[in-house]
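Many introductory courses stop at the sequence. We go one step further.
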Amino acid sequence: MSKQIVAIIGRPNVGKSTLFNKMVGKRHAVIEDVPGITRDRLYEEARWEDKVFDVVDTGGFLHDPKEEFAKEVIKQILIAVEEADIILMMMDAESGVLPLDIELIDRLRKYGKRVMYGVNKIDGPKKEKTLLTDFYSIGVDLYPFSALNGYGYEHLMDSLTGEMTAHEEEKSEYPRIAIVGRPNVGKSTLVNALLSKERMIVSATPGTTRDAVDSVCSYYKKKYTLVDTAGIRRKGKMAKTVERYSFLRTIRNIENCDVALIVLDASEGIVELDQKIAGFVTAAKKGAIMILNKWDLVSKDTATADDLKKIVYDRLWFMKHVPVLTISALNKKRATKIFPIIDTVLEECSKRISTNELNLFLRNAVSAKEPPLYRGKKVKIYYISQVKTSPPGFIIFTNRKEGIKPQYIKYLEHKLRDRFTFEGAPVDFYIRQRKQKQGMHA
């Protein structure tokens, strides 16, 4: 399940950004190196206890339809409201309830969303008793707090994350397949090609966002949910608020999918933006398939399918375990070959290897190449065990955790894939330290 989104809204100067900064602290932004998002610090990851969620800071709600700036701010707020799972509306205890607060409350009620009403700038019990009285007339549950000094903040966050626990989304009944890529690579054309086959039964379901449409289809009695996402644009092309939120929704769909189809333009080759998109899928630890679309536009005299696959793996070296398929979505050539590959990747993501097989593999791998010495001492690896699937995860026990460097983990991953494949599936390694026991070394 993807992280839930909390939108902080309210009129100007009620302390939205102060609360936003307190919630996200110094944590790293969810989206990196994307102009127009991290620059404005509108959208970041927050954590409270064991809950991790995304929080959006919006502009101050204004009401002046004659001003273009006010219209743009309102548009931004409404997009945030549309996308959010929970809305935290902030008011200012010192100024009391103003007409703008009432107007915004009335607008929110029309959305039927979960809304929490926070009253900021209450820094102690005395102010809570004297300043909160004006707000009772609104007829909603109130959360008094101070974003500046932290009074009431713990109760606010406990209540906020409690809402998440009570309203978690149910996992999709069918595997979710997200079609991702930069604009104009043929994502929607591919979806249409897959849905137009006579042997498919199609049931369209409305998407929860403006630019992602879910379609449930059946291929030889197996059902899948196809998610057509917005194209991820180049740097400098995301200045508009709508573009920013479209990007964030696409990232969310990646996080919530089972397999991502990374659509590439075979006629243009692999560009930097393709690398970034593939990086998003890798970071989300999702099963993946690379689709080389527009294969019909490539001259077969200059490049074969194998030539293109080699170029793909050279540019996307971190996805050499991911299958590549050449298709023409426009001509509906080879498009349905995607489904058997999806089935394979789903199986690989859920594959479980017995402990005996894993430790036989580990002994052979360590015999061929031992970990380098750490501070002049031998690094021993005792055993390995698989602890989860989707994605597959493995614990390796050693006598010196710090001695197992990323390069050696990469070596083990390469050997693991040689032995057990895990085609299209990400794998995780967790290093644990324990004392050496007799007969337990690899």
